[in-house]
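User: Fold this one for me? It's Diadenylate cyclase.
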Amino acid sequence: MIEPAFIVLQNIQDTFYTFLQNIRIVDLLDIIIISSFLYIVLNWLRQSASRRNLFSFLVILIVYVIARLTGMYLTELLIEGLFVIILIGIIVVFQSDMRRIIDRISNWRFFDISQPDSTDISSSIITEAVAKMADQRTGALIVLKGREDWDRHVHGGIELDGKITIPLLHSIFNTSAPGHDGAVLSDGQRILKFGVHLPLSTNLYKLSRGGTRHTAALGLSEKCDALVIVVSEERGTISIARNGQIRQLESHSDLKKHLDDFWAEYYQSSATSYKQWGERRSLKTALAAGSLAFILWLSFAYPSETVYRTYAVPIEYSNLESTPYALQDTVPLEARLTLSGSEQAFRTFEPSDLVISFDLSSEEVEDLELDIDSDNINLPAGLQFFEATPPALQLKKQYFVPAEVPVKVPVSGTIAEHLQFQSAVPSPETVTVLVDTASASIDSVLTEPVDLSQIEGQTVQQKALQLEGDSFRLPEQTSPNIRVTINVRKIPS
Ligand SMILES: Nc1ncnc2c1ncn2[C@@H]1O[C@H](COP(=O)(O)OP(=O)(O)OP(=O)(O)O)[C@@H](O)[C@H]1O
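Assistant: Here's what I get for Diadenylate cyclase.
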């Protein structure tokens, strides 16, 4: 009994070590980015009106992950095949939420704004006015602007742009006044409009009681981050709707705290945002996002299986000039390499970058049997050399012995009638040539010929040395050009 338990433990330990060896910094970054994305999505779903619909998509995702992990190829293939349809479904179902996210991003503030004192005054005024209207059973609907734009969702109304005061709120919602129907839109200390029509919610199950006024409050709270206060004409209660949820307040005085919290969040200071981050709910969401990202990464990106791929790879020989030998005949210029690694590593790899290179100046290549191994291959991270065909290269070499030989300048053509050719003097007069003594010998080296028909007087020309065949070569750093001075004499007429 002890042995299998030990083996299991050993296996877990091995898997863990392999995991640690395989994981790269970019993988950690990958997980962090996905976690952040999931954190935003989960947070949004907590507030989203369409979150019930999410359940079906979540089931499909879970089935897909299980199918992938357990190798249920047909199921995996089916879900992948339906991917576009599922994506369209997600876009249709979550379209209003997606628009909200885009709105939210476009209204993002990179530097937090501290809360102005005026909001404190506004919350006191609104609390007092609303409490009084509730006591008097005057129906009211007051919207406080959040960060998001609401223009797309609200309709009609009369422009006001006046400072919030208790008498103003009372006069607006006075049932005998023509503008009491609809909602008041406010931003900070100002009333922007009254008599505004808000979108109605379709999630009527969230309303235990209440008619269209409460439905309208809930409706707007589902579309943007505004806070909506409802005073029920029928029951004299105060309710607040926010982030797609509506709740009736226990006591009228609770409203002040809700308003203060709302504004604190709206004009969020860094201190509050850190505090919020540390809140248990946010922490839970962050943990859930991190775990989900890790599971997704393990299922889709973790290099679990080793795959083998073979490529035709060019061979380069370098520093041949600095050796006392040359390679005989034609040398192999290509070999087939088999590499091993994860599918993920192969995905980011560019086979055309691969090259086998031999530094022939190195002392190890004495016998010129060159083994192809990982030292000669520019392997990318994550891939290993498995085998090469052929596994080694057999190259024949030629040894070269230096010989100092005179330079001779041949001449061609006929010189002009009024001139007489005297001499073509090379400079330097001798050069050192490397000679493969096993197959050739040399007693002089010729330059390109001097064409006498082009000579019009004494002149100096550059002529290249003519070394034909594989048995001769010039040492490194020797110029192949020779300076030739052509001496002529004028024939007196
Ligand atoms: N879409 C809307 N946008 C803004 N205000 C609306 C909207 N629909 C209804 N109202 C307001 O709600 C009033 C009707 O309230 P209704 O009695 O139907 O709702 P309720 O939720 O039961 O409210 P109460 O508890 O005050 O009776 C309308 O007179 C109007 O002022």
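One thing worth pointing out: The first strand starts at residue 140 and ends at 144.
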